[in-house]
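note to self: dont lose this again. the chain is below, predicted strucutre after it. 81 aa total, dont forget to put it in the shared folder this time
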Amino acid sequence: METRVALISIIVENSDNVENLNQLLHEYREYIIGRMGIPYKSKGIYIISIAIDAPQDMISALAGKIGRISGITTKTTYSNF
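---
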């Protein structure tokens, strides 16, 4: 199956739901290339970037599930590669 490389950008504004986010990322761990998290303490938010190499439908499913978690927003950028 053909895969795509993408970057899922995540802003966590409600840290009460981080456990739900981590559980989702754990479920998709075989596709995740890397993860970087930055706590922005003065704003009280967390900025997370997920690099992923997966089939298009898997990336869309993960991003959609993340976006449905309360207090968390996400955007996905795809590589043309």
